[in-house]
Specification:
Layout: E1 2-3, H1 14-22, H2 48-74, E2 82-86, H3 88-99, E3 106-110, H4 116-131, H5 143-154, H6 191-202, H7 227-230, H8 241-254, H9 271-282, H10 290-294, E4 298-304, H11 312-326, H12 328-332, E5 335-340, H13 369-379, E6 386-392, E7 400-407, E8 412-416, E9 428-432
Parallel strand pairs: 1-2, 2-3, 3-4, 4-5
Antiparallel strand pairs: 6-7, 8-9
Helix pairs in contact: 2-3, 4-6, 4-8, 4-9
Length: about 425
């Protein structure tokens, strides 16, 4: 089992190595050729070869080296090979399927940052919307008001009032409803803040109004891993992770200028040269997975609908592009997509976020994405509904089940039957949205 990296990599992923090892896999990880914290990119300044390593070469060479070691140690080649990871690791997963389709038999790609260059443009769009001047900055103290207004407008639309939006695309929340009618407070937004919020939901566009990258989904504003972590930060001086990734990508990989100022980015002129320089190295957007499919490869994608770091619409777009390139029947033979209501970036959020994305001994395929992938690869049993669980853990106590909910193969969604507990997966059935 190959193990990927989040963020800008720079370290070995020991946590996921341990999970693979406990499940009986030979396993390997790479720092992708540099040592640094995951939010630093100054290692790339003046070192284009390190960017290539980060982009695709290190993961592939790790696969080759690991298979050689396994073959020499066990005197036989691995029977099957898998890769599972999230975020940048999801980008690495898709890069393997597209560029090196013989490396792995089964791949799990979570919340993939595969449209890397445009994701970084989106980060700058968010930065310009909220940080360009103090008036437009939305403090974390106002996030509860935004979140509760979204739920008031949209929560009940899916038939269950539970703090979770089943499909945020059906939510048409107007930020203008939060405009302060009296003194500024945490319960309302000023006019510049309303404008900034609209830009965050809309996502960046070029000078002709064309979408560069999809915007934030309503419903993921709150929670410890929500917008406070990724979008707004805690204060104007303690910025969100999206700002850090975007500015460091452009200063250290695109403009080669540590003093570069995000306010100077031009969405009409700077996107094309960014793609020209880095898309071929960092993006994993090729939808034609013919070689991977032909050799029996299977791919499972998943993404949280409340992800504040990478718009879930990006993964929906990629899946639809695969269908457009290969046809629905061919795509169904080797690809599944699971959209996870209420889950934020690779986990967390108000929705059920435990569904076996990594291997575990004796895992049930009905509750484990990874085990269902193994069944598909090794026994030809295609995945269907997977039950996700939300666990809570009180201080010093064992975790307990708070709720369960079915994850449906996209485009189906979990629909309440009208009877039974709304916190029990048995009360839901997978259907196509009307």
């Amino acid at each position: 089992m190959g193990v990927g990296n989040g963020r800008f990599a720079g370290s070995i992923n020991y946590r996921d190595l341990a999970a693979a090892l406990r499940a009986g896999f030979a396993t390997a990880s790479t720092d992708t050729g540099h040592e640094a914290s995951g939010i630093e990119a100054n290692w790339a300044l003046g070192h284009p070869e390190k960017i290539v390593d980060f982009g695709y070469r290190a993961i592939h060479l790790t696969n080759a080296a690991a298979k050689t070691i396994v073959r020499n140690f066990y005197q036989s080649a691995p029977r099957k090979s898998y890769f599972a990871s999230c975020s940048n690791g999801g980008r690495q997963a898709l890069m393997e399927a597209q560029r090196f389709p013989s490396d792995y038999d089964g791949i799990v790609a979570g919340a993939p940052a595969n449209f890397w260059t445009h994701l970084m443009v989106d980060a700058i769009g968010g930065a310009q919307a909220t940080y360009a001047n103090r008036a437009s900055y939305i403090p974390a103290t106002k996030l509860p008001a935004i979140h509760h207004a979204v739920l008031a407008a949209c929560d009940a639309a899916d038939g269950v009032k539970d703090g979770i939006l089943n499909d945020p695309r059906q939510c048409h929340f107007d930020p203008g409803t939060l405009l302060c009618r009296g003194p500024n407070s945490n319960a309302c937004l000023t006019a510049p803040q309303v404008t900034a919020l609209k830009k965050l939901y809309a996502g960046p566009v070029d000078s002709k109004g064309r979408q560069i990258f999809p915007g934030e989904m309503p419903g993921g504003e709150l929670d410890p891993t929500g917008w406070g972590d990724w979008v707004t930060g805690t204060t104007p001086d303690k910025k969100g992770a999206g700002f850090l990734f975007g500015t460091r990508f452009f200063s250290d990989m695109i403009f080669d200028n540590p003093a570069w100022n995000f306010r100077t980015f031009n969405f009409g002129e700077d996107v094309r040269p960014t793609d020209k320089k880095m898309a071929g190295i960092l993006n994993a957007t090729d939808p034609k997975l013919t070689v991977f499919q032909a050799r029996g490869g299977k791919l499972i994608l998943y993404h949280g609908w409340s992800d504040p770091a990478i718009s879930p619409l990006n993964t929906v777009d990629y899946y639809n592009n695969v269908i457009a390139a290969m046809g629905r029947e061919q795509t169904d033979s080797f690809v599944r997509l699971y959209m996870v209501p209420g889950m934020q970036h690779c986990g967390g959020g108000p929705g059920p976020d435990s569904f076996g994305a990594l291997p575990a001994l004796n895992a049930d395929p009905n509750h484990s994405v990874f085990s269902s992938l193994e069944e598909w690869v090794e026994r030809g049993i295609a995945p269907s509904v997977i039950v996700a669980t939300k666990f809570t853990r009180a201080s010093g106590l064992a975790r307990r089940v708070e709720m369960t909910r079915p994850l449906c193969p996209y485009p189906e969604v979990a629909t309440y039957k009208g009877v039974g507990s709304t916190r029990d997966a048995a009360s839901f059935v997978c259907k196509l949205e009307q």
